[in-house]
Amino acid sequence: MTESATDLVDAALFDRDRLDPESPYQRSGPAWGAIISLSFGTFGLVTAEFLPASVLTPLAHDLGISTGTAGQALTATAIVAAISAPTMAIVTKRLDRRVVIWAMTLLLILSNVLAEVAGSLPVLLAARVVLGISLGGFWSISAALAMRLVPSHLMPRAMSIILTGVSVASVCAAPIGAYVGDIWGWRA
């Protein structure tokens, strides 16, 4: 049977293969590699969220703003993430979760690049808003994706692995940010 390009794109975007028991993409066991990848993703996102807290003073000085104003960029991330988490779950409900996770990861990279080149508060805020969208989207999708990657009796273990990324980043982001910021500056 030959498939048209439209059928292939639809299958990729709308994850139809997971519903087809004869699909070559059906897994026979838990996908622990994918779960670990989600853990690394949460680590990267939470690190990007918390790391700037340790370099607020040099960041504010470099942008010519107060430390309190620079801190509002971190607040913007949290507010946007809180709004985007339920929104992304609704907006992307028909899309393949793998595509959504990749898109959120690309937004994380874009936000970090924007923050690195930020020469003004509006650019920094834009970078942090993009990070908030990525953070909320990733969080809202990762648990649903984990349910597809492992059997239900392994779900607690899978979620604990994914959330390990959050724990490690929460503990390590600020000290690493302070150390790297002291050596190479806040843009590093």
Question: Could you give the topology of this structure?
Answer:
Elements (H helix, E strand, L loop, with lengths): L4 H10 L17 H19 L5 H8 L3 H25 L5 H21 L3 H29 L5 H30 L4
Helix pairs in contact: 2-6, 2-7, 3-4, 4-6, 5-6, 6-7
3D structure, described in words:
This protein has 188 residues and is mainly alpha-helical. Helices cover 76% and strands 0% of the residues. The longest helix is centred in the C-terminal third of the chain and has 30 residues, at 155-184. It is elongated. Residues 12-19 have low confidence and may be disordered.
Average residue pLDDT: 86
Helix content: over 70%
The rounded Rg comes to 19 Å
Report the CATH topology name.
Answer: Growth Hormone, Chain: A
Classified by CATH, the class is Mainly Alpha
The string of secondary-structure elements, in order, is HHHHHHH
- Tally the structural domains: 1
Number of strands: 0
CATH architecture term: Up-down Bundle
> Which assembly state applies to the chains in this document?
single chain
Coarse morphology: elongated
Spans of at least 5 consecutive residues whose pLDDT stays below 50 are 12-19
Q: How far apart are the first and last residues' alpha carbons, in Å?
A: 52 Å
Helix/strand/pairing category? mainly alpha
